Amino acid sequence: MMPAMKRFLSLLALLLLVCVTSPVYAQSILRDAESEALLADMSRDLIKAANLQPNNVRIILINDQSINAFVAGGQAVYIHSGLIDAASSANEVQGVIAHELGHVTGGHVPLGDRMAKGATGITILSLLLGAAAMAAGSADAGMGLMQMGQRAALGNFLAFSRAQEATTDAAGVRYLSGAGVSGRGMLDFFKKLQQQEYRWGLKRGGEQSYVMSHPMSGDRIATLTADLQADPAWGKSNDPALEERFRRMQAKLRGYVSEPKDTLRRYPETDTTVPARYARAYAYHKSGYPEQAAAEAAALVKAEPHNPYFLELEGQILLESGKPKEAIPPLREATEKTNYQPLIATTFGHALLAVGRLSTAGPGPGCYQ
């Protein structure tokens, strides 16, 4: 096969992959009762401010260490675990959620769909013309036509995407204001992204800035600062209870997705705070040290004896360490205190099955004994 034809086929395969693949398909969803409850509480007022129904909008956590969030059609916002790890506060994550809700209300489709419906028309034409030229024996001319079409398509798409992102930023500002949530977190998070751009060597007016799907973070900060600072909620303090819950969720997530050695380095045993114990419990459990994991979970339960998520963790560690009978009491209480939250109730059910104590009654609160 001619080298030019090989390049043509590779280009065509890449185009088809970009156009039909949704980003969520390649990533795994993380399910955790505590995290989902927190994200729901953090976003509820923002969702209402966007004139959406909280029960219809889902905030979904994705296991991906990159700092990102996206929508994929419908009323769902996907947040990467890497974004939670990088955030300094719940308020920063609220700024991200407000922005993503702008995509939801704007009816914005996933990146791949946008390319398929917009710029791809130019690309397909260039592919057809290029293939015709190659078939006529002019391989270089054919490849040139295809590459020109690719550049034109990409340029059109990126310009459209940057304009769309700017509009969505403005919507996010309105939703923060409507919810009475300070916009300081939104600006702080954009500053984090700006630091990343500096590390990557990106700068305003540079060649790279024209091949970005989002506006430069510095431009976004300059555009949004005045409106955010003028809002009555700008000086409002972050909710201490919400921030404490976020620190716990963040530590828990780090313990679950990070390498145990990294977690233990970040949260040494000298740190006896609740978030640190949470992270270490998951790190020890993940790396096969059940006694250490159980000790951290026991310390959490001792600090807050009726915290359903601490009880859930204690029961899960006992169950997965081969002690299902001992796991039943904490899992029972966790299930009851969360009104039979499905994820926790399922773990409780596994413990009951393991010791042969699952009732034969029908579904619902009465099915557990």
Please tell me what the overall shape is: globular
What's the rounded overall pLDDT mean?
80
Provide the structure class. Answer: mainly alpha
> Can you count the beta strands?
4
Helix content: 55-70%
Distance between the termini: 69 Å
| Spatial arrangement of strands, main beta sheet | 1-2-4-3
Sum this structure up briefly.
The chain has helices spanning 3-20, 33-49, 81-86, 90-105, 111-117, 120-135, 139-179, 184-200, 217-230, 240-257, 260-266, 274-286, 290-303, 308-320, 324-337, 342-354; strands at 28-30, 58-63, 69-71, 76-80.
What would you note in describing this structure?
The chain is mainly alpha-helical and 369 residues long. Helix content is 66%, strand content 5%. It is built from 16 helices and four strands. The protein has helices at 3-20, 33-49, 81-86, 90-105, 111-117, 120-135, 139-179, 184-200, 217-230, 240-257, 260-266, 274-286, 290-303, 308-320, 324-337, 342-354; strands at residues 28-30, 58-63, 69-71, 76-80. It has a four-stranded mixed beta sheet with strand order 1-2-4-3. Strand 3 and strand 4 (76-80) form a beta hairpin. Helix 7 (139-179) runs parallel beside helix 9. The longest helix is centred in the middle third of the chain and has 41 residues, at 139-179. The termini are far apart. Residues 7-23, 112-134, 148-160, 205-213 and 358-369 have low confidence and may be disordered.
Keywords for this entry:
four-stranded mixed β-sheet; mainly alpha; 66% helix; 369 residues
